[in-house]
Each structure stands twice: as structure tokens, then as C-alpha cells.
Amino acid sequence: MATNTTENNQATEPKKKKSKVFIIVLGLLVISGTWFGLNKYFHAQHHEETDDAQVEANISPVISRVSGYVSKVYVNDNQFVHKGDTLMVLDQRDLEIALKQAEAALATAQSNLNAAEANSLAARTSINTTHAAVATADAQIEAAKVNVWRTTQDHQRYENLIKDHSITQQQYEQALAAKQLAEKQLQVLIDQKNQASTQTGVVSSQSNATAQQIGVAGSVIKQKQVDVENAKLNLSYAVITAPESGLVSKVPVQAGQLVQAVQSLFSIVLSNDKWVVANFKETQYNKMQEGQKVIVHADAFPKHDFAAVLSSFSPATGARFALLPPDNASGNFVKVVQRLPVKIDFTDKADSLIKKLRPGMNVYVDVHLD
Length: 370
Prior knowledge:
Elements: H1 2-46, E1 47-64, E2 68-73, E3 80-81, E4 86-90, H2 93-163, H3 169-236, E5 239-241, E6 246-248, E7 258-259, E8 263-281, E9 293-298, E10 301-313, E11 339-346, E12 362-368
Antiparallel strand pairs: 1-8, 1-12, 2-4, 2-7, 3-6, 4-5, 6-8, 8-11, 9-10, 9-12, 10-11
Helix pairs in contact: 2-3
């Protein structure tokens, strides 16, 4: 019996020790969980966090403004270029021919204008000549009228005298002939004046037509000048330069390749600025304000704190800018928490690691609400 009692005591002692360890471990877990929960709770009251965030930067596409075959490419993948550096050159021969054609058309238009101006000068000279002829005819007509009046008066006197036989028949006939000659001379001068007046009208019409030709020729010259400038501009587009300083993306263009106008060839990631776009849930939006301090952690540099500031909020949720934005008017409504893009700017421009960040990198954002 004594032996059995001793064995029972030995069997129960380890069980008591295990029970104490379990209680201690459980207590530590409860304390740790409570501390962790309270820490997270108080942290959440003063912070808003998200890992749905990426680094962004300005990306400028390199676009060909004219069609042509690539003559030479001067850049490689991931190369840094400065603004104005030559990236590639297109074959310029077709563009040079187009420029020469435009210049030849401009010269032809200038010749047409010179001819029209010469015709206009000749027309003005003819008008002056016809005006002088009309003026001369008017003076001669006035003199002829006086002569007609004088011969008519002589004829009337001689007609009375012939009745009295005071003059001879020959004298009377001479007076009559003088009167008829004066009348015919007057009629000839009137006809000459009418002809000169008609010629003046014709020359004036020609002058007006010539003036219109000058106006048309001037308009054509302006058009041809525009064509020349356009041809020069297209020729300059054969040399494709960097619009801004930055890093070149992958360059898929090779010499001899045909590129089309407005074709995007590759891109340049600008080096002037970088920022973060974080997509917060709409339930996190109520306490966030512009100007709040932000700490950014990049997955590439997890132990480094990037100082930043909340800069601005998007005017709409990301879903509104989708190709097919959601429309809940169909009746099949499922509530989905939307995300609002928020722009975050880096404040420490002297931070050397910012230059190592690349657009598209994932970051973790912590907004300080206080």
C-alpha cells in the first residue's frame, strides 16, 4: 500500500507543474494580445495606413511628328538624356524634295504676281491715254460746235441774199458747203469721243480684272509661303530630340524601320520630380486633410523612412476614371468600398534615396492625423 501511495504522488506532481506553465503562458499571451490590441487601437486613432500605393513620376512620350524611315538611333535602353539631346534621325531626302517643291511653287506664284502688276501698270497707262483722248475730243467738239454755229449763221445770211440776187449762186453754194462740212466734222469728233469713252470703259474693266488677279496672286503667294514654312518645319521634325531630361525606357526602334506620324516610339521618365499616389479606402477619408505629415516606406528600402506630406485628393474615386465605370442603376447593387487616390509629395529633397525610386514601385504609407 505504501508503495502505491508513493507512486501516485510522483505521478501527480508533474501534472501540477504543467498546469502552472500553461497558466503562465496563457497569461502572457493574454497580456501580449491586450497590449498589441490596445497599441493598434490607439495607433489607428492617430494614423491612417495603406499599402495600396505606388511611386509616380512624369513620363514624356517620344513621338514622331512626320512619317519616314529611321536613319540612325543615338540612344540605348535606360540611358540618361538631357533636354534637347538628339535621340534619333529620320531619312530627310523626301522632306528636302518637298521643301524644294514648295520653294519652286512660291517662285512661280511670285512670277505670276509680277506679271499681274505689269499688266496693271499697262492698264493704268492705257486709261490715262484714253482719258487724255476724251479730253482732247471734248475740246475739239467745242471748237467744232463754234464752227458749225458760224457756218450756219453765214448760210442763213447767204440764203436771204440769194433770194435778192445780191450774191452769186457760187457764193451761196460755198456757204452751204462750209456749213455741211462743219456739221460732218462735228459728228466725226463726237464719234471719236464715243469711241474713246468706250475704250476707256474696256481698259477700266481690264484694269479691274488685273487688280483682282493681283489680289489672287498675292493670296497664292501667302499660301505658298505657308507651304514653304510647313515644309521647313517638317524637315526639322526629322531630327527627334528629347523633350525633357530623364531616363530613356526600352528603345524598340531600329535603323531602317518605318515610323508613322504621331506614332509613340518610346518614353522618357522625367527626373525633375517624384511623388506617391496612395489609394485609401473611403472609410479612411474622414480625418485626412491636406498638409498632414506622412511617412513612406518603400519595399525596396524597408528600413528607410521617407518624409512626405499629404498634398491633394483626387476629385473622384479611381473607379470613376475606369474605362467602364460602375453604374448601380441596374438594380443588382453590391456595395463595394471605393478607394480614393491621394497625392503625397516628398518633403526632404536632399534624400539621396529618392533618386533611386522608380515609378511603379510599391510603398507603404502612414498618414499622421494629428
